[in-house]
């Protein structure tokens, strides 16, 4: 845990990073703009979503090319890694773990190679739901694979190991490494399946790329994470399976952001932590206050959700706070 700041002393420099959602990496120009926006502001880590919905924003023989990409062979991850290396920006590949499909219209993947079509037996179908249209309840986010299904876990492990073996990424970042809700699990003991994935991934990914930084976006309150979505991330940190935690403290109330991040820091005092902050449009003062709250909570860095070239004013505040 970093040393306490003395009253009145200047804040030490924090790490700053950006979460970059997949729709911001669909062209070379978009990626070049991202790198320019990061480097001109002294931001040297980008966490870029390359497996968003059981699909690939890179070259893959295991999952279908993302529908949002043209059929021109452009490889977003390859361009990210090459351009990042040229300007000193570290690229962390971000993969959604168990969340594999959603659609605002309820449409299913067009590709018949998508695991939703190829392996419906892997999918989490709570309460006897027999259809795949993601409208299965008020808390339904979309289609998940069942964490308790060993074949589904093995597929995700293979996908992630393939990425880190073939691309010189700084790190690999897990999101949705959890159940959607505890009610979707067979029992509360199913947390063991989520933890099994994290343990196995630590071994496989580090074997594929020694020195890889493994990180995870997590619910910031460890009790809520444990009880609501079976995400026992303090255990993962203590075991050394995670190098960097990103607690998602998405709240407008800065005091609540500070409370959540302080609680997260106390739950994993020896693990590097970037406080996850939301970029609320137009809220420049709020963002600056929340960066300082993350630092006061003991976070070594802050990570912003999410990069948007239409909100460069927020990037300016985030990088300079």
Could you please describe the fold and organization of this structure?
The protein has 321 residues and is an alpha/beta fold. The protein has ten helices and ten strands. An eight-stranded parallel beta barrel has the order 1-2-3-6-7-8-9-10, surrounded by four helices.
Walk me through the topology.
Layout: E1 15-20, H1 28-39, E2 45-51, H2 76-87, E3 90-96, E4 99-101, H3 115-118, E5 143-144, H4 150-166, E6 171-175, H5 191-208, E7 213-218, H6 222-229, H7 233-239, E8 244-247, H8 254-267, E9 272-278, H9 284-296, E10 301-305, H10 312-320
Parallel strand pairs: 1-2, 1-10, 2-3, 3-6, 6-7, 7-8, 8-9, 9-10
Antiparallel strand pairs: 4-5
Helix pairs in contact: 1-2, 4-5, 8-9, 9-10
Task: Explain briefly what this protein structure is.
This protein is α/β, with parallel strands linked by helices. The protein has helices at residues 28-39, 76-87, 115-118, 150-166, 191-208, 222-229, 233-239, 254-267, 284-296, 312-320, and strands at residues 15-20, 45-51, 90-96, 99-101, 143-144, 171-175, 213-218, 244-247, 272-278, 301-305.
Overall outline: globular
In CATH's first tier, which class applies? Alpha Beta
Mean residue pLDDT: 93
The low-confidence parts are none
Total beta strands: 10
CATH architecture call? Alpha-Beta Barrel
Secondary structure class reads: alpha/beta
| CATH level-3 fold name | TIM Barrel
What amount of the residues lies in strands?
15-25%
Q: Evaluate the radius of gyration.
A: 19 Å
Strand order, main sheet: write it out: 1-2-3-6-7-8-9-10
Fourth-level CATH superfamily: Glycosidases
Distance, first to last CA: 21 Å
Main sheet attributes: strand count, strand direction, barrel closure = 8 strands, parallel, barrel
How many domain units?
Answer: 1
Number of helices: 10
* Helix fraction bin: 25-40%
